[in-house]
Design brief:
The structure is a single chain. With about 375 residues, the protein is mainly alpha-helical. It has 2 domains: about 200 residues, no CATH class; about 160 residues, Winged helix-like DNA-binding domain superfamily/Winged helix DNA-binding domain (Arc Repressor Mutant, subunit A). It is about 50% helix and about 5% strand. Helix 2 crosses helix 12 and helix 10 crosses helix 11. The longest helix is centred in the last third of the chain and has 28 residues. The protein is globular and about 45 Å long. The structure holds a DNA duplex (15 and 15 nucleotides).
Length: about 375
Amino acid sequence: MASSPLHPSFADSACRHLAYSRKQKSLGLLCSNFVALYNRDDVDAIGLDDAARRLGVERRRIYDIVNVLESVGVLVRKGKNQYSWIGFSGIPKALQDLKDSASQESLGQDVQDPPTKALEEEEDESINQGTDFEGEKGTSGLDSATVNSAAGSGAKPALEQRREKSLGLLTQNFVKLFITTDADTISLDEAAKILLGDAHDAVNMRTKVRRLYDIANVLSSMNLIEKTHHADTRKPAFRWLGLEGRQNPETGAPVPITTFAKQPRKRSFGTELTNVESKRPNFNLLSDESKGRAAVLAADLVECNRMAQQLIQGPKGGFVFGPFQPVAVKREYVAVQKGVEREKVSDWERMAAAFRPQYHNQALSDLFTHFVEAWNSWRHSTSFL
DNA sequence: ATCTCCCGCCAGCCT
DNA sequence: AGGCTGGCGGGAGAT
C-alpha cells in the first residue's frame, strides 16, 4: 500500500487510525451506514439484531438510531425487535404532523389541563407511529411532558416519567423548536433550557445536552440539520435544513431530501462494516498480534466509512451521489451537473484506475470490487442521458 | 479547559 | 425468568 498512489485522505486516515478514533464510532456515521444498509427497494422489515450484527455495533446503539429515525418518520416500530423501513419519503408527513400538533398545542394552551391518562395513551401511539403526538402545551407548542420532565414530575408513575425523557420524544420536541420558531440557529444549550422549562439545573442540563448531541448527530447525518455557529457569538449551533436539504455546494442546485427514494435492489457500498471493534481498545491489554489486526481493520473501516458517508452526504456536506443515487434525483441532478461533471470525468477515471486500496478483510475487498463494477455500470448508463 | 459524545451499566417493562 | 428496551452519567477523545 505504501508504494501505491493513494488518495491523500486515504493515506492520511490510514496513518491516523493506528489508534482508536471515536469519530469512526459516531452515531452520525453509524446512522449513515444504517441508512445505506436499509434504504433499498428490497428492504421492508428490519431486525435490531440483524442491524447490530451487520453494522458491527451493540444493540444499544441501534436503539439510539431507530428512536431518532422513528421520530422523523423514516421507520416505524412493528413489534419487539422489529421495525419497518419507511424511508425518506416518510419525513414530510412526520414533519407536517409535528407542525400540526405544535400549532394545536399552542392554540389550546390556555384552555385546560388535559386528562393526563388519555394524552399519555395518545402519545404512546403517536410515538409508535413516529409522529403526531399530542400533549400538554409548553413553550413553542412543545410537549410539556418533556419540557417539565426534569421538574421531578411530582407523583407521576415511573413509566410515564421514563417516557417523558425518551430520546424519541426529545427528538420530536427538538425538531419542533426549529419548525415552529423563526430562529435561524439554535444551540444545544438553548434547546436544553427550553425543553427543560423551569427545571434547568446543572445536572439536568448536562444530561439533556448529552442527549441532544446524540440526536443532533443523527439528524445531521440525515441532512435535516447542519452544524454551524451563531452569527454573533460564534457559539456552536444547529441550523434547520429540513425538506429542502442542502444546495449542492458547487452548482447551487437544490437537492431536496424529499427526492430521496429507496435504493434499487443493489448492494449498497458502505454497509456491513461499521465499528467492528465495539469497544474502546485497551492497548495495554492487547497482544502485539491483536494490535496489528486492530490497526489493519481500523484502516479498512476508516476508508469504507468515509466513502459510505460521502455517498450520503458528500465530502463538503452537500449530497454527492454515486452509482446508487435514487432515480428521482438522478435526472434533475445529473442534468444540472452534466456540464461540470463532464470536465471532471477524466480525473475520476484516472483516479479510479490508479486507486486500488488493499483491504486486508476479504469482505471489504469484495465490497470494493462490487463498488467499482457498479460505478462502471453507472458511468455507462449515464453516458446515455 | 471545555466541548463533545461513546459506552455500557442497570432499572424497568415485556413475553 | 429471561430477554428487550433505553435512561443515564462517567469519563475519555477532540478541540
